Task: inverse folding
């Protein structure tokens, strides 16, 4: 049996497609909602999800772990509201549920197809973008220290068949809103790590880090293949560093 778990905040545009893709294989759906002001909770309840209300934390992995802890099934699939399970992955999970759990196995990597402003990003380091999302209860846990962290797994990790279709940024305005959220969280991390504001850190965050990031994504990982979307993605990925640094300066 399968528990599907999510953490949400104002996901009314995405949640229906996400839950519709797994409703026939999930015994239970658990949604930890962080103070949504739209129809997210209503939609979740339409899919008979168990909704747990909490605060909207800057590190949303805390709410994800809360959803994981509330799951009762042995096999757990953790999703973001803007992800859809494709048929290959669904069939893989169905076959997995028929098998006796291997005590040596802790979790599975799942490949993601990331869509950015209407285009599937095939380069720029955005495919296959493997994430650990399918695991046995009590064998995987989020460290809850960063928004891009992978799960810590007790046991072997295998490769699942199929994909998560990730529709996180259908428009640039969606991307820019998340860009602001992530850079704010990064600035808080820099503050907690007591980064000193001086000429050395200025050069590092305002010049070196963004330049290296852009060259890696757009050049080495061939982001240019993905047209203007690949250029914009590489550019704003590079801008994460100086924007977070400027936000840190403002905090001090």
Result:
């Amino acid at each position: 049996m399968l528990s599907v778990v999510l953490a949400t905040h104002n996901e009314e545009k995405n949640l229906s497609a996400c839950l519709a893709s797994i409703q026939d294989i999930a015994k239970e759906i658990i949604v930890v909602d962080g103070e949504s002001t739209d129809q997210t909770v209503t939609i979740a309840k339409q899919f008979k999800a168990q909704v747990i209300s909490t605060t909207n934390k800057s590190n949303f992995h805390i709410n994800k772990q809360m959803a994981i802890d509330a799951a009762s099934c042995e096999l757990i699939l953790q999703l973001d509201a803007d992800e859809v399970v494709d048929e290959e992955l669904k069939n893989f999970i169905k076959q997995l549920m028929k098998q006796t759990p291997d005590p040596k196995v802790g979790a599975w990597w799942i490949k993601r197809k990331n869509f950015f402003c209407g285009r599937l990003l095939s380069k720029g380091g955005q495919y296959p973008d493997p994430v650990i999302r399918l695991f046995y209860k009590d064998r995987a846990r989020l460290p809850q220290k960063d928004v891009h962290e992978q799960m810590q797994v007790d046991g072997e990790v295998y490769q699942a068949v199929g994909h998560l279709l990730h529709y996180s940024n259908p428009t640039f305005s969606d991307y820019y809103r998340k860009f602001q959220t992530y850079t704010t969280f990064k600035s808080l991390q820099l503050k907690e790590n007591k980064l000193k504001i001086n000429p050395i850190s200025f050069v590092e965050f305002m010049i070196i880090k963004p330049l290296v990031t852009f060259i890696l994504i757009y050049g080495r990982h061939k982001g240019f293949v993905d047209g203007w979307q690949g250029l914009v993605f590489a550019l704003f990925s590079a801008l994460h560093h100086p924007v977070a640094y400027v936000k840190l300066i403002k905090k001090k």
Remarks:
- The chain has a mean pLDDT of 96.
- The chain has two domains: 2-169, 172-251.
